[in-house]
Every structure is written in structure tokens, then in C-alpha cells.
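Typical record was shown:
=====
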Amino acid sequence: MDEFISVDEALEVLFDKADMDDSSKIKRFFRYYNRGKVDFYTELFGRHSRYGVRENQKESPESLEKLEGFFKLNRQHCDEYFHELLLLHLGVEFKDNDVEAGSNVIDPYDHHQFYESFSIGLVEDMEGQVWKLKAQEPTEYKGIEVHHTHPIHPQVDDLLIKADQAAILRGAIKPKKEPHNRFDIIDKSNRERMEILGAALAVLSEFRGECVTKTTGKVAGAKVAKLVDIKAQLFWPETLEPPQDKGSIEKIINEWLNKAR
């Protein structure tokens, strides 16, 4: 039987020793989701249960079934919902198949606008059957009784992931045990520096406008380091993150920029 954990528990498993604030952890976690490393589920039960009709099945009173238990949130159907959820609650958004920083100022009215405009109306059970969420009681429309959509609006705290997916992801992103041989440690450090400088050169070539200051037009190490971190999946597709933290990356880049100044 599948075991599920909450997003908070997943963040603790994945980033227990990472020097990151909660917003950065959520941002990184949704980057893994966006890359297909984890799937999101929700639990329907009690007052949170729903009724549903199998997708592609003709709707009738007999086809309506009560849905309770764990359900997968269909990735294709939910992408827009999660985009807006993150933008609203965490000040981040998906951009070019990645997660970008956005505005942290939240207008309270936006919450109402969000619930009016975005929802999830399809779920997938553990056998892979897709269900359209419907209201239990029908309403009359043009002389015909219909069951209107009864969607859900899961928040970040409502999302669940499979514990085994978190374990696999943890194994992929956690650094391997440091080598004990001094020369191996030096070689590893040099390799990481070379990878970081190569990534810096790549982003500087493709995104120069985002790497320079507006006043002087000079390359800024902090801007380059930020782009290396954001575009990490291009250079480290296995871990989706750089081998060193952003502060260390900036230090390495500035060290070489300052040699020519």
C-alpha cells in the first residue's frame, strides 16, 4: 500500500541541512515537480469528499459515484492551477518550464479572484481511472437535470506525495559521501569550479542582458550566479541544482571577473 507524506515532510526530507529559507525550498520543490520527479496527490474524505463521473462516460444519476481516498492530481490538467497558486501565495511562478521569483506583495482581493478563476475538476484514482468531479445534487438546465462541476482548490498544505518518490529524489539530490583522499577532494573541488565557470560562461553568452548592471553595463557576479542557479537543470540534469550554494558560486565568478578589472 502506498504511503504518502505532506509537502512539509518532503521538504524536511529533501532539504534538512540546506541553507535555504522556506520560500526557496518550496520553489526548488516545485521545480522538481515541474520536471516530473514527483507527482502530487490529495485525499478526499468526509466533508472534503466529492462525487464523480468517469471520464468519457455518459453522465447520468446512475454513473455518479462518491469519491473518497487518495487521488492523483493530473499534471496536464493542473499545471495552470499550480502556476497561479504559487504566484499568489509564494510570490513565485513557472516561467519557461522553470520556477521564477515573482512579486511578494499579495493583494487580499487576489485570493477571491483566484478561487473564482482557477480550480481542479479532474482527479485520477490509484488504478489510473480519471474522474470528473460533480455536485451530488442535480440542477435543472433547459428542462434537463445536470450535475454541475464541483471542483477542489487544494492549497500547498493539502498536497501529498508518495514517500518512495521522496526517497528516490533524496538519493538523487543528496551529495555523495565526501572522499577521504586529499587529492580526491581537491579534484572534486576543481571539477565543481570548472562546471560552475562553464555554466557562467553559457548564461553570459545567452542571457547577457540579465547579467550586467543597468548603470555601467558591466557583468555582475551576483546576477550571473543567480542565473546559474535558476538554469541549473540545463547544466546538472541529474540533480537539478548546482554543486555549490549561490553564495559560493558568486564568489567563484567574482574571483575571475576581478582578475581583469
